[in-house]
Amino acid sequence: MNHTRPKIYLAGDLVFRRDALALFARLKAICAACGLEGLAPFDGQKEAMGLPPGRETILKIVAADRALMDGCDAGLFCIDPFRRSPEMDPGTAVEIGYMLALGKPLEAWTTDPRPYAEKVDHYWRAAWALPLAPRPPIRDAPASGALEDPDGMLVHSDGMLQNGMVEGFISFGGGVVSTAPACETAFRKAATRLARRLGAG
């Protein structure tokens, strides 16, 4: 690539926040201090600017995001819980899988360091005042969790902060999930680690 600083795709539910543009500006400044060039999804979405909400606009945004990921050297992902659920933004999860398939280095960050099962338990108690229950072992099936929710769904991914596929793919991309209570602090930890891996600075 014809650039001196590695280009980093910045993703997460950040794009849906009211202060998204200002937040990305601060995260890009952190990237620059680390010797990286941070790129927000908005940076590739010029063709979709001004179009009315709808299917065609969304498909243009999706195509633009894919093209931006294709042109980046690595990905840095926010995996915070989304819309008050224990789960992260599903679009970001897709992007993590896509960039791993491209063979690009990955890092992640979150402001919520609770184990995934604890997030699920809190969600059920807060929303319906219902607790999780022990899950009896299932014969001839691997045990990815020891609890189930009131719908009988396994609370999987023990030992992870998020869905095991998400955190596993970050690990396969050479990364870890950096944590801190403040958004920019957690992001800085992840960006610093990624910069070291890429030899930036």
From TrEMBL:
Protein name as catalogued: Nucleoside 2-deoxyribosyltransferase
SUPFAM superfamilies: N-(deoxy)ribosyltransferase-like (SSF52309)
Record keywords, A-Z: Transferase
Native source species: Acidomonas methanolica NBRC 104435
Gene3D superfamilies associated with the record: 3.40.50.450
PANTHER family associated with the record: 2'-DEOXYNUCLEOSIDE 5'-PHOSPHATE N-HYDROLASE 1
GO BP annotations, alphabetical order: deoxyribonucleoside monophosphate catabolic process
InterPro entries in UniProt: 2'-dNMP_N-hydrolase (IPR051239), Nucleoside_deoxyribTrfase (IPR007710)
A single GO molecular function term of this UniProt record: transferase activity
